[in-house]
Fold this protein.
Amino acid sequence: MDKKLRSGFTTGSCAAAASKAAAWMLLAGTEISNMNIITPKGSAFDAEILDIQRNGDRVKCAVRKDGGDDPDVTTGSLIYAEVSLSEADGIRIDGGEGVGRVTRPGLDQPVGAAAINSVPRAMIRSGIEEAAEMYGYEGGFNVIISVPGGEETAARTFNPRLGIEGGISIIGTSGVVEPMSEQAILDTIRVELRQKKAEGNKTAFVSPGNYGLDFMRENYGMDLDRSVKCSNYIGMTVDMIKELGFEGMLLTGHAGKLVKVAGGIMNTHSREADCRMEIISAAAAREGADAELILGILGCLTTEEAFAKLREADGDMAGRVASRLMEGILASLNRRSGGGLNIECIMYTKENGLIAASEGAEAMIEDNREQWNG
């Protein structure tokens, strides 16, 4: 029987628990070893309070991030909150050491703000207000969230791509980390797309992964590191692009992924579906391939091997099959979008580079070259 994966708590939950504990100790004048909060999902988080530092009108303490069984690079980090009293009303929240700053528009926080998202900010305020009410304090607070080593940790996250500099983000919408969360990947895709839209881009450049970077850079001057990586979630990415109001989309990818799209498979993970050889074989049959070639393709393990067989059988067959597959890819993408979105596509393999491009793909690149050079 499969082991049930253990959930954890977000950096936002850790920051909220540390902030509430610091405010509590500041107002009570005593130390505590644990603090309980309720996450937005409704789960209780009983956090151990570490490294307590009391200094007059301020208290600083930490909660250690535990991401459960999710492979989260922030697991083990100490999330600190320093809370001090303020003569001004309200609760002001900022980031210190190891917490990133937003440098590009389109994120949860405005440019220049600490990368502490709105849900964690609300959680922090709620916990501090609870402590203030308990002790009858009606003044204001200053809160500084910090993460020692956060800048080094952030280099292993999406933050540099998103324009968050100097550290990690304090994030979480539910307060709970779900192991291997599909939603976390989809949230990242949405954030990147929203950011591209906020920067004024009308066309979304999308790639499932990092295959073919050199090919696209050398042939089209496109740096796919600046595209939105959609992983296996091609269909859901189309949904987001349409929802966010983009006018166009250019999908560039290796045949190993895109062949599946030609067959209407919009989540290309192998556990969802495969049928690559069946899809290629069907396209080859429509282009006049004989039974021997079709059986040969069905016995292949990779699309690279399948296209090698097509080239060996007939000099023009591989190109004709790739073109027919491209027709299927565009039909699937347009069907998913429901119309109203200009979709183009480029497909390549490692061995042969470009094997098919939709009619308007190169024009779309030229029309949006400023997006890449800006």
The chain has two domains: 8-177, 185-373. The first helix runs from residue 11 to 28. The chain has a mean pLDDT of 90. The chain is about 40% helix and 20% strand.
